[in-house]
Structure prediction request, 538 residues.
Amino acid sequence: MSQWILSGTLGDRPLRFQIEDGVHTVGRTPENTVALPDAAVSRRHAELRVDQGHLVLRDLGSMNGTFVNGVQLKGERQIAAGDEIRFGQVVLTVDGAQTPPPRPLITANAATNFTITTTIEEIRQQARQSRSDRVLASVSEAGQMLSRSMDLNELYEKVLDLISKSITASRVLLLAKTDGEPEIVASRIGDSAPEEPLRLSRSMLASILDEGKSFLTADAAEDAQWENKGSIVSLGLHAAMGAPLFDNDRILGAIYVDSRTAGLSYEADDLRLLTLLGNMVAVKITNSRLEAEEKTLEELRRELSLAARIQTNLLPKDIRAVPGYDIFAYQAACADVGGDLYDVRPAQNGQVWIILGDVSGHGVAAALLMSNVMAGIQILTETSADPLDLVTKLEAYVSQHIELGRFLTLFVGLLDPSSGALRYVNAGQNPPLLLSRLGRTPLENSGLPVAILPGVHARKPLECHLAQGDLLLVASDGITEFNHQGLQYDEGRFQQFLDGIGTKGAEETGRSLLRDLESWSEGAAADDDVTLLVIKRQ
Prediction:
């Protein structure tokens, strides 16, 4: 019988596989002889065949291909010692054929303190050579059972059923690895087992949970590695086994079984079976958790999508035309939902409300507050006499619903289209810019942001004038403070853009600004909501 060795690394973990006479598969999942748990490796990636001392490799239609010494494999090819084989992104080096020494059986004897330990890699190699019908049948049944979708509690019960049917045991325990003591997540206690607390050797648990080793003890009462041997004797334990719940990436916990049946000793096949089941169950546990997380994320995505639609409906769909004025509005949230708001709506006596605000923070909390604010604004614009009146009433309303530490920066203007007079209050919002023949004039700040200091209303109303050809640009700090490579947009580039506006209309100015921002940031994603209002008097 010939034996070839494939060795390499996966991440920082060394890999070593012994390939002997027969046909072997290479793939991502544990049932393969050469199991390579890497996303770039297909489930059944390739096939290795050892025949009369020759090693032959065949690709099985893998997604990312199989390469020998840098050349993609087409069909099959004979492999020589020293060849490098790449499966996806995993590279293995081939050592020459050799005749392996006789494989020792797993046994327990006094020289080993009645205990044996082994690893999942060793168990896999031995299981491939084992012809135990019981092991094969149990692993096959486990594969069928674990292929079904189920929650963790159902999974635990199915695993306990399978182990109890396959291995004679007084107790079966599934333990989860935690930062402290392992936690029992499921158990099956036989009628003859006493209801006393389980006492396991910390060194044995460390061997399972930290080193990933399985153990079998043939006589628990005489085993020096068990702690509290008096209790072990009183419990009547005769044999015990433990194996890691190893998902091919990390150890999630352990499976433990023991027996009080006199004369019963666990054998090599029992340990192989328990270890293989531990590996298969751990993979299923991880997949079940990922499925549950994906379902939760999908529900969250649906809820956020609904919230985004609701939020969009709160903003004006179409801005009513104002004779003699050109108006452009734009908003883009940096996440599914945002905290910026704007509105342009008719007021009494032919006047027009111009509003732009920014709720502190991002995400769902900011979006909920933004929705509250927009609802309040839509009511208050019908009843408020001027911008200061609206901001004062809005602050009283918002203060009842806002949590401590949150606030709202807000620009509220009331435009008289016929005269161009704009009365406004700027409560901490990014200073709007008035572009006229005389140059660029930042509009003065009126006072504190809304609800930043409950009960403090020290703000003053201000006024400016839009002459024919003048342009008012109101932008959130998501534009002016857009940070790219350590610089903000308003540190030079914004000024260059403003210099080039010339006689552009409101929409042309707004879209040119957004294109310039995207070009300057090289298409980088925004980390704040981007909101813009441009009003030009024709």
Q: What stands out?
A: Residues 238 and 379 are 79 Å apart (CA to CA). The longest strand covers residues 90-98. The longest helix spans residues 268-314.
